[in-house]
Specification:
Blueprint lengths: L16 H21 L3 H7 L4 H13 L12 H14 L6 H13 L17 H14 L2 H4 L4 H11 L16 H13 L5 H4 L2 H6 L18 H13 L8 H9 L20 H19 L36 H7 L17 H4 L9 H12 L5 E2 L6 E2 H15 L26 E2 L4 E2 H10 L5
Antiparallel strand pairs: 1-2, 3-4
């Protein structure tokens, strides 16, 4: 089997540290799979069951109180809120009024007077924690939560973070990378404040980060990475420039990141990690929907054909990347981007594609059941999820393992929000999670509510 320990009679041969770590992990994972295969079917069904009650208990406990060891995450408190609240929403649950009130009050205290959210009350505004805070408030939903977001000041903050490279700085004087581009554009889309000034140059910056492997790095000259690849791909869709990427090589790089264990690795020759169930699995879902758009009568995705915002939106704007008040992308930019695509950009906005209602049912481009198996058997513990066997559970991996599980479950679905067939869900059908908007990783119902709430442009 690929990746298993080779035998060598040569005394000079010595495995690398990475090879040894890979073999150790494979032994741990395959031991779990072997035990699973050798037990009765009823016991197998129990092992594959999503332990909802235990997960909810773990998450609610974390939302109410965290121990002193979490002090190292003081600058990430909106992230902790998002990881927990999003996980609860994925499981189809909600918090009580007291917890909701406390969460809104706390996140509001993180909102800077000049726009954006910091990692805690009084901390400097940061794009990453702004994304986490906004996603948390959208997940909570309702007028009180959504109304606490100051869109005018957030727009001002995003404009201040705009960098001369075309990308964004994470904070005043901070690093410029693909993560900053994604968090800025995702927030702007969700709040309906995206305009041409924010979009200008973003596509050029992300394009400069696509590597020879096909994946996307955090910044030009760095190594392709699963998290940055998701961020870059999602951003390029949101700003209507995904056709500029080399989607053929990106797809190849992406599918080869799924390991023999069933999970995804974040980089070439690295170990699988449960969090990449979403970063890589979610990117695979986006690629699959681009293929679906091509199947509606356009040329192949592998030919880098053009996709526009109209192909990712409908009357309910379920997966819309552009706001109703966004200025059109410069015709010169679109002409350059699609020069070799064979698509008439003058008529591209009228291409009839509704992602939600006309998504083509097709086999996923990754091994969906294998990913679900890794998540349920290797990452799931009795309350929460972990990176891999031998690691401890945490809220971050719980969030992204559940997000990846949702992406895998709905990867066969004909419609973005339609219940998948039982064959698409590994284990009992009660494992089915809530559908998400894969571009911003928010449960679809809450995302739609926010889009309606923020339907009027500034």
């Amino acid at each position: 089997m690929i990746g298993m320990e080779p035998s060598s009679s040569s005394p000079e041969w010595k495995p690398t540290v990475s090879q040894e770590e890979q073999w150790i992990l494979e032994r741990q994972v395959f031991h779990i799979y072997q035990l699973f295969c050798n037990i009765p079917p009823k016991s197998q069904a129990v092992m594959l069951e999503l332990q909802r009650d235990n997960h909810i208990e773990y998450l609610m406990k974390g939302l109410r109180h965290l121990g002193p060891s979490f002090s190292v995450l003081d600058a990430n408190r909106p992230w902790i809120c998002y990881w927990i609240l999003h996980s609860i929403a994925l499981l189809g649950e909600s918090v009580d009024d007291a917890l909701e009130h406390n969460a809104i009050h706390f996140i509001s205290r993180c909102q800077d007077q000049h726009g954006g959210y910091g990692g805690g009350p009084g901390q400097m505004p940061h794009l990453a924690t702004t994304y986490a805070a906004v996603n948390s408030l959208i997940t909570l939903g309702g007028h009180r939560s959504l109304g606490s977001i100051n869109r005018v000041k957030i727009y001002s903050f995003l404009r201040r973070m705009k960098h001369t490279s075309g990308g964004f700085s994470m904070h005043d004087g901070g690093e410029v990378d693909v993560r900053a581009c994604y968090t800025a554009i995702s927030v702007a889309c969700a709040l309906n404040i995206l305009d041409e000034d924010l979009v200008q140059g973003v596509g050029d910056y992300i394009l400069s980060c696509q590597t020879y492997e096909g994946g996307i790095a955090g910044e030009p000259g760095s190594e392709a990475h699963g998290g940055y690849t998701f961020c870059g791909l999602a951003t390029m869709i949101l700003v209507n420039e995904v056709n500029r990427l080399d989607l053929a090589s990106l797809t190849d790089w992406l599918v080869f990141r799924q390991g023999v264990e069933g999970g995804f690795q974040g980089r070439t020759n690295k170990l699988v990690d449960g969090c990449y169930s979403f970063w890589q699995g979610g990117a695979a879902v986006l690629i699959q929907r681009l293929h679906a758009a091509a199947g509606e009568g356009h040329s192949s995705v592998r030919s880098n054909e053009s996709f526009t915002s109209s192909e990712f939106s409908d009357d309910e704007e379920l997966l819309e990347g552009t706001s109703s008040g966004m200025a059109e992308i410069s015709p010169d930019v679109e002409e350059d981007a699609g020069r070799d695509s064979g698509i008439d950009h003058a008529n591209s906005s009228s291409i009839p594609f509704n992602l939600t209602q006309r998504h083509i049912e097709a086999e996923p481009i990754f091994q969906s059941h294998a990913l679900q198996q890794y998540i349920l058997l290797c990452s799931q513990v009795e309350g929460g999820f972990r990176d891999k066997p031998g690691k401890n559970r945490d809220h971050y991996h719980t969030c992204y393992c559940l997000s990846g599980l949702a992406a895998a479950q709905y990867s066969w679905s004909k419609d973005a929000d339609s219940p998948p067939l039982p064959r698409s869900v590994l284990g009992p059908y009660s494992n089915l999670l809530e559908p998400i908007n894969p571009l911003c990783n928010i449960v679809l119902k809450q995302y739609n509510e926010a889009r309606q709430f923020f339907s009027k442009p500034l």
